[in-house]
Design goal:
Bound molecules: S-adenosylmethionine, iron/sulfur cluster
CATH architecture: Alpha-Beta Barrel
Largest sheet: 12 strands, mixed
Radius of gyration: 20 Å
Number of helices: 12
Number of strands: 12
C-alpha cells in the first residue's frame, strides 16, 4: 500500500466563502488585511501534477503511481480562473504568477495566458503576468507563451552538475534541457529571467558557486531559496537548511557583493549586486528571516480554494460561488471579507516558537497543490 497525503479537503475545516458573499464589500482597488497588508499578488496553481519528483516537494514515495490527483472536473476552467483574476485585480492585485505543480503541463495554457493578458488593473494597466516552471518544456513552449502575452518567467534549477540535478528532480531529467529552456525563454523575450535554486545542505550546496559563476553577467537574476518546511511529506529538518547569510558569504568570498535596496514592498528576495557590475543575486530567507510583515500574496489552488499563507492548513473555497451562480459583486465581497480577516504570519511565529516538526502540528497543504 502506498502512503497517501491527507487530501486537502480534509485538512482543517473549509471556511464558508459563501457566507461572506452576501455582506456587500465592493472593490476599491486597495484591500488591507488585519495587519494592514494590501493584497497585490495572486499566485494561481493551474495543475497539481508534475513531471519531476523533487524530494523537497513531491517525494516519489508519496507521489507514486497510485497517488490520486484532482480529477479534471475539479479543476477551475480557464474562464473561471480569468473571472476570479479580474475580480482580484479590482481589489488591487497587479501581479499574477501561474504555478503548480508544473504549469506547463496544463493543456492549452497559452489560451489562459491570452485571457489573463487582456485584463486591466483599476488604473488601466495590464497585469504583471509571470510563470514559475521547472523549465523542462520551456524550449518547446517559450515562443508561444510570449506570443500569448506572458511577460516573463522564473525557472527553477537546483544545480548545474548533471548527476546532482538528475538526482534532485528524481526522474533523471538532464540539466542540459533546462538550460536550453532558459536560452529559449531569453530568445523569446520572456525576461528579465529569474532562476530559483532551492539550497539543501549536504545535497546541492556545492552547486552554489558554479551556479553563481554560470549566471553572472548573463542578465539572469539567480535566487537562492532556503529549504522550507512546507507541506507534510518532505521530511524537512532544520539541519538541512543552509542559511542565506551563508550563501551570501560563500559567493562574496569569490565575488564581492553590495546590498541593493528593495524595489517594491513585499519583495521576497533580499538582493545583492556584484560589485564589478556582473548583475545581481537574491536570497529568499523564509526560514532564517521571516518576511511576513509585508506579505501581500494570496494563493489560489487548482480547484479554487483561496489560501492566505503558504503554511495555511485550510483554504476558502471559491468554487461553490463560481459554480453556484454567484454574481461578480458577491464573489468580490467574499474575497474582500476573506482578505480582511487575514492575520497569517507563519514564518514570523516559527521564528519565535520553532518549526512544527513533531507530527502534532496540523497537516499543511502541499506546495505542489497551491504553488510556490
Ligand atoms: N514546478 C514549478 C517549479 O518547480 O518551478 C512550479 C511549482 S514549484 C512548487 C514552485 C517553487 O517552489 C519552485 O521554485 C520550487 O523550487 C519551490 N519549492 C518547492 N518546495 C520547496 C521547499 N520545500 N522549500 C523551498 N522551496 C520549495
Ligand atoms: Fe515539480 Fe516544481 Fe515541485 Fe519540483 S518543485 S516537484 S518541479 S512542482
Ligand atoms: Fe506570507 Fe505566510 Fe510566507 Fe509569512 S509565512 S511570508 S504570511 S506566505
Amino acid at each position: 500500500m502506498s502512503q497517501h497525503v491527507i487530501p486537502v479537503s480534509e485538512i482543517g475545516r473549509a471556511r464558508p466563502a459563501t457566507a461572506m458573499a452576501n455582506l456587500a464589500l465592493p472593490a476599491t482597488g486597495v484591500l488591507l488585511d488585519r495587519l494592514q497588508r494590501p493584497l497585490t499578488d495572486l499566485r494561481i496553481s493551474v495543475t497539481d501534477r508534475c513531471n519531476f519528483r523533487c524530494s523537497y516537494c513531491m517525494p516519489k514515495e508519496v507521489f507514486d503511481k497510485d497517488y490520486q490527483y484532482l480529477p479534471h472536473s475539479a479543476l477551475l476552467s480557464f474562464e473561471e480562473i480569468t473571472r476570479l483574476a479580474r475580480l482580484f485585480a479590482a481589489h488591487g492585485v497587479h501581479k499574477v504568477r501561474l504555478t503548480g505543480g508544473e504549469p506547463l503541463l496544463r493543456k492549452n495554457l497559452e489560451v489562459l495566458i491570452e485571457q489573463l493578458a487582456a485584463l486591466r488593473t483599476p488604473d488601466g494597466q495590464p497585469l504583471d503576468l509571470t510563470l514559475t516552471t521547472n523549465g523542462s518544456l520551456l524550449a518547446r513552449k517559450a515562443r508561444a507563451l510570449k506570443a500569448a502575452g506572458l511577460r516573463r518567467v522564473t525557472i527553477s534549477l537546483d544545480g548545474l552538475d548533471d548527476v546532482t540535478f538528475r538526482s534532485m528532480n528524481d526522474v533523471d531529467f538532464p540539466v542540459a534541457e533546462v538550460l536550453a529552456g532558459i536560452d529559449a525563454a531569453k530568445a523569446a523575450g520572456l525576461g528579465p529571467i529569474k532562476v530559483n535554486m532551492v539550497v539543501k545542505r549536504g545535497t546541492n550546496e556545492q552547486e552554489i558557486l558554479p551556479m553563481a559563476r554560470h549566471f553572472r553577467g548573463t542578465g539572469v537574476a539567480l535566487r537562492f531559496i532556503e529549504y522550507m518546511d512546507v507541506g507534510a511529506t518532505n521530511g524537512w529538518r532544520m539541519d538541512e537548511v543552509l542559511p542565506s547569510a551563508e550563501v551570501v558569504r560563500r559567493i562574496a568570498e569569490e565575488f564581492p557583493l553590495v546590498p541593493l535596496e528593495a524595489t517594491a514592498p513585499g519583495e521576497t528576495a533580499q538582493r545583492w549586486a556584484y560589485q564589478d557590475g556582473g548583475g545581481e543575486i537574491g536570497v529568499i530567507s523564509s526560514v532564517t528571516q521571516a518576511f511576513c510583515h509585508d506579505c501581500n500574496r494570496a494563493r489560489l489552488s487548482t480547484e479554487g480554494k483561496l489560501y492566505l499563507c503558504l503554511f495555511a492548513n485550510a483554504g476558502h473555497d471559491l468554487r461553490p460561488l463560481l459554480r453556484g451562480g454567484a454574481s461578480d459583486e458577491q464573489i468580490t465581497s467574499a474575497i474582500g471579507h476573506i482578505w480582511q480577516s487575514r492575520s497569517d504570519r507563519y514564518s514570523e511565529l516559527r521564528a519565535l516558537r520553532g518549526p512544527d516538526t513533531d507530527g502534532a502540528a496540523p497537516r499543511r497543504v502541499e506546495m505542489s497543490y497551491i504553488g510556490g
